[in-house]
């Protein structure tokens, strides 16, 4: 299972294990593919997974090395776009108008190679200019050439004078995080996006044995952090045998807030692609997994089959669906802006807008209200999102508790429930909610931003 928290209904292109590209098709040019992805992301607000699925045949036609290069190019572009654009603007008398977006994208593609990927200047410039076809674009080759040549000479000096955390974060997110967490933490979060996130897996059992076999380290509980450069997880021992699934350490925590689930009927609401479903089943629960997306539910079925785990799987809108018999416990992992996952999905910073947060907060409130009716009196409800925004986290819960004061109470989480590591208290708020930030445990590779709160039904 590979994690996908972008709420995208489009699957990431599957890895062909041969890595040789597919069929007799002529392999696609990785730089040209990246240009198309950039357009999909920046001008059509698609996630990288969505954009990649538009170009699946091209992606799969490439050798494994070219696929890795294309991914490196697009992810570095997304992580560093603020600095790249600032450096490009410094090379021009005035900013390029939006009708010249294609020209700007070609310069960006050359710039990322010159500034961050150590591509020899002649190769970065000539391979970019080769992509400038068509009368409207090719007429701008002298401009593109001049900007890229200047970046090859002065680019590193320009970068050294920039504030890389601040410059690479969209302004509205910077302002929001400074007002929510303070400038020091906002900067630490922004800096955490600049490096690729490590790969975490959750094992069904025997974490000590699996951490040795896969040469990783146990973060806590059943979560193992693999060493950098481990490569594509589908090639690793235990994947085909269904012994583990990919899940960020922070994403493995909300399910723990339900306590012992052995023998309990647990509703996993908004379940796809099924990371927490697998965790709850492995912990001994009888799980009903509900999600509204047919396409994503297909992945739950595939993932459970690989992991040889069983759940009742229901495709339904959880704003109105109700179980025939109420659950003992429920986990609502609500759709959200996913701003806690920018390390893994740096493009989200470019496609999300402040108004998305408001709309998602309304959807989460509807889901939470309906989930409140799905559990028995005395039952536990855990609400979680991978957002850093208070409207999707603590403010959502405050509103819910204010409207349901006689029906629900918050049960503060104790750090010992999350595991034994001495640093786990860092992840809890003074109210006893879980509040993971991407900058937590930065020196060990950080973690996704996650919020979770535990409630008990009183009446
Ligand atoms: C954050 S993802 C869930 C991740 C999942 N819990 C896991 O651990 O693998 C949110 C999910 O909410 C689902 N969703 C969005 N709106 C929904 C609705 N009204 N009813 C049910 N599911 C919904 C999306 O399809 C998406 O799969």
UniProtKB/TrEMBL annotation:
Residue numbers spanned by region Disordered: 1-30
Domain SAM-dependent MTase RsmB/NOP-type residue range list: 161-458
EC numbers: 2.1.1.-
Pfam assignment, any one: NusB
Ranges annotated as biased composition (Basic and acidic residues): 1-12
GO MF entries: methyltransferase activity
SUPFAM superfamilies the UniProt entry points to: NusB-like (SSF48013), S-adenosyl-L-methionine-dependent methyltransferases (SSF53335)
Active site: 386
Record bears the keyword Hydrolase: no
One BP annotation, GO: methylation
Enzyme class, first EC level, given as a word: transferase
Gene3D superfamilies named in the record: NusB-like, Vaccinia Virus protein VP39
Transmembrane domains' residue ranges: none
Superkingdom of origin organism: Bacteria
Keyword annotations: Coiled coil, Methyltransferase, RNA-binding, S-adenosyl-L-methionine, Transferase
Positions of S-adenosyl-L-methionine binding: 270-276, 291, 317, 333
InterPro entries in UniProt: MeTrfase_RsmB-F_NOP2_cat, MeTrfase_RsmB-F_NOP2_dom, NusB-like_sf, NusB_RsmB_TIM44, RCMT, RsmB/NOL1/NOP2-like_CS, SAM-dependent_MTases_sf
Sections of the chain in a coiled coil: 290-317
Family: Belongs to the class I-like SAM-binding methyltransferase superfamily. RsmB/NOP family.
Protein name in the entry: RsmB/NOP family class I SAM-dependent RNA methyltransferase
Organism: Kiloniella antarctica
Species lineage: Bacteria, Pseudomonadati, Pseudomonadota, Alphaproteobacteria, Rhodospirillales
């Amino acid at each position: 299972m590979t994690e996908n928290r972008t709420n995208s209904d489009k699957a990431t292109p599957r890895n062909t294990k041969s890595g040789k590209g597919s069929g007799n098709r002529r392999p696609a040019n990785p730089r040209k593919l990246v240009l198309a992805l950039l357009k999909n992301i920046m001008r059509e607000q698609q996630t990288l997974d969505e954009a990649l699925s538009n170009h699946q045949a091209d992606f799969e036609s490439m050798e494994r090395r070219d696929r890795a290069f294309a991914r490196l190019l697009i992810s570095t572009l997304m992580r560093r776009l603020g600095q790249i654009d600032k450096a490009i603007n410094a090379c021009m008398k005035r900013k390029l108008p939006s009708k010249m977006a294609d020209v700007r994208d070609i310069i960006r593609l050359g710039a990322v190679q010159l500034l961050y990927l150590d591509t020899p200047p002649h190769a970065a410039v000539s391979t970019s200019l080769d992509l400038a076809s068509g009368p409207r674009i090719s007429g701008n080759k002298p401009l593109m050439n001049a900007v890229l040549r200047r970046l090859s000479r002065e680019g590193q000096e320009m970068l050294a004078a920039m504030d890389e955390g601040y410059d690479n974060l969209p302004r509205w997110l910077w302002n929001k995080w400074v007002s929510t967490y303070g400038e020091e933490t906002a900067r630490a979060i922004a800096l955490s996006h600049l490096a690729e996130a490590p790969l975490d897996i959750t094992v069904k059992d025997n974490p000590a044995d699996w951490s040795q076999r896969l040469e990783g380290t146990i973060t806590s509980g059943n979560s193992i952090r693999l060493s950098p450069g481990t490569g594509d997880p589908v090639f690793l021992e235990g994947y085909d045998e269904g012994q583990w699934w990919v899940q960020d350490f922070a994403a493995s925590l909300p399910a723990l807030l339900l306590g012992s689930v052995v023998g309990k009927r647990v509703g996993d609401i908004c379940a796809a692609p099924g990371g927490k479903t697998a965790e709850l089943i492995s912990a001994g629960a009888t799980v009903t997994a509900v999600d509204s997306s047919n396409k994503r539910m297909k992945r739950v079925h595939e993932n459970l089959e690989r992991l040889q785990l069983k759940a009742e799987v229901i495709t339904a809108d959880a704003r109105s669906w109700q179980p025939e018999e109420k659950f003992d416990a429920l986990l609502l992992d609500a759709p959200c802006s996913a701003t806690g996952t920018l390390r893994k999905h740096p493009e989200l910073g470019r496609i999300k807008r402040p108004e998305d947060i408001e709309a998602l907060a309304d959807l989460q409130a509807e889901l939470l209200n309906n989930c409140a009716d799905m559990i028995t009196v005395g039952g536990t409800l855990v609400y979680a999102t991978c957002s850093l925004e208070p409207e999707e986290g603590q403010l959502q819960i405050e509103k819910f508790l204010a409207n349901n004061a006689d029906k629900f109470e918050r049960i503060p989480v104790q750090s010992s429930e999350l595991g034994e590591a001495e640093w786990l208290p860092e992840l809890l708020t003074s109210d006893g909610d879980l509040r993971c930030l991407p900058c937590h445990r930065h020196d060990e590779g950080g973690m996704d931003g996650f919020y979770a709160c535990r409630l008990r039904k009183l009446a």
